[in-house]
Please model this.
Amino acid sequence: MSNYRMRYNSQKCSATKHRNIEWHFTFDTWMDWWGDDIVNRGCRKGQLVMARYGDQGPYHPNNVYKCKMEENTKDGNIGKK
Model:
């Protein structure tokens, strides 16, 4: 199994099984969505993540955008105490 396929499966499993969030990407649509940015994908500071608008709804090509991990963490904490 390719390294990218393992990363895809891990992200899908994290979303669906651990966080109960719908997942609407196939491996191919996920790879296309990431494009050349796939090499900058990760969960460390400065790396890119797949963020959902308003931190709501499914992981779907029309409901996600790329941002740095720390921006996503900040946005996800808005309104939380």
User: Anything to note?
Assistant: Strands lie at 48-52, 64-68. The helical segments are 3-18, 27-34, 69-76.
